[in-house]
């Protein structure tokens, strides 16, 4: 084991390896209109070599091609490029389940031919997820891929359960294989925000057809949603949420947005404290249209069961509610 990995292990065991969980800023993201990462762009010295590696070795698919496109002096100046660099050719690669990879090849490239060192500003790498890292390493080695070390399993801390290893492309760029089929350590605390993972998307995609809900199943989940909001016991409420709500469910109210079980649970708990004894019930039959359901509800005490009325709109995916839009009627 390298000294670097020994240091990582010692630090993790000591409990000092902390990876800060990012706090979702939904408001800012909505204002910016950003949904996620579309692609990662990298420059390569030989397009044919790069395409062969990503398609023939890693098994991805090259989809689109642009160029060669001549670059004018203004473009080069604005993009901090050498004036003598020639035309650019661009190919977009579909990299399995995840962001695309955009490859750039510049003819007569006058830019630096030296890769950034590991501690240089601008140094980067792409990590590819695999469910079986040993199998992936064995296969890539059979294709002549050079690995910089052996796979390393994180023993504790936020990344406990993650195995990773670096390898090189034929042109010397550093890439990574990473695997955490049973999740990472930080997930045990049920954080509000979970890091995106291609394994979750792949699992969701493969299970969607088998988890397509019938109208009756959706109505049953909506009924359980009412039970969640009427449940006073925290543990029982959490168990019910696991059945109905996706981990990353987003609840949108006119005044706030709640993400995940914890934030919704906190809101329900606060509601019980402010209006003790009140109960939710539906006013009429639950409407279902494909994977969308509509619930008209009322909330109040026995003498005034309709003190507050409104409507909840659900979006179901892969067997659970992923979106919940709450509409509260104006006070009578």
Automatic annotation (TrEMBL):
Please give the coiled-coil regions recorded for this protein: none
Q: Provide the VOC domain boundaries.
A: 36-180
Keywords carried by this UniProt record? Dioxygenase, Lyase, Metal-binding, Oxidoreductase, Signal
Instruction: Kindly indicate whether the keyword Isomerase belongs to this entry.
Output: no
Q: Which GO terms describe its molecular function?
A: dioxygenase activity; lyase activity; metal ion binding; methylmalonyl-CoA epimerase activity
Give the record's GO biological process terms. Answer: L-methylmalonyl-CoA metabolic process
Reading the lineage from the top rank, the first entry is Bacteria
Signal peptide segment: 1-28
Q: What is this protein called?
A: Catechol 2,3-dioxygenase-like lactoylglutathione lyase family enzyme
Q: Which organism is it from?
A: Pedobacter zeae
Q: What are the top taxonomic ranks of the organism? A: Bacteria, Pseudomonadati, Bacteroidota, Sphingobacteriia, Sphingobacteriales
């Amino acid at each position: 084991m390298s000294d670097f990995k020994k240091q990582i292990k010692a630090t993790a065991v000591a409990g000092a390896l902390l990876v800060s969980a990012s706090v979702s800023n939904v408001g800012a993201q909505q204002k910016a209109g950003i949904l996620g990462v579309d692609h990662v762009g990298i420059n390569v010295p030989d397009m044919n070599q790069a395409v062969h590696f990503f398609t023939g070795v890693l098994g991805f698919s090259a989809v689109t091609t642009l160029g060669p496109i001549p670059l004018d002096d203004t473009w080069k100046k604005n993009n901090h490029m050498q004036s003598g660099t020639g035309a650019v050719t661009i190919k977009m690669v579909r990299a399995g389940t995840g962001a695309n990879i955009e490859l750039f090849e510049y003819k007569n490239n006058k830019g630096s031919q030296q890769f950034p060192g590991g501690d240089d500003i601008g140094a980067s790498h792409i990590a590819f997820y695999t469910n079986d890292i040993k199998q992936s390493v064995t296969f890539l080695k059979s294709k002549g891929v050079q690995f910089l070390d052996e796979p390393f399993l994180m023993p504790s801390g936020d990344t406990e359960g993650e195995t990773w290893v670096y390898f090189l492309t034929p042109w010397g760029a550093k890439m990574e294989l990473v695997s955490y089929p049973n999740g990472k350590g930080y997930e045990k605390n049920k954080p509000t925000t979970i890091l995106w993972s291609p394994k979750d998307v792949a699992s969701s995609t493969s299970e969607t057809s088998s988890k397509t809900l019938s109208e009756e199943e959706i109505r049953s989940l909506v009924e359980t949603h009412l039970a969640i909001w009427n449940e006073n016991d925290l543990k029982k409420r959490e168990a019910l949420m696991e059945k109905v709500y996706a981990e990353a469910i987003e609840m949108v109210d006119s005044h706030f947005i709640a993400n995940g079980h914890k934030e919704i649970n906190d809101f329900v708990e606060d509601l019980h404290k402010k209006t003790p004894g009140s109960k939710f019930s539906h006013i009429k039959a639950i409407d279902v249209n494909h994977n969308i359901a509509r619930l008209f509800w009322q909330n109040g005490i026995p003498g005034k069961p309709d003190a507050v009325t409104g409507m909840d709109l659900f979006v179901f995916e892969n067997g659970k509610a992923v979106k919940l839009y709450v509409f509260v009627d104006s006070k009578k």
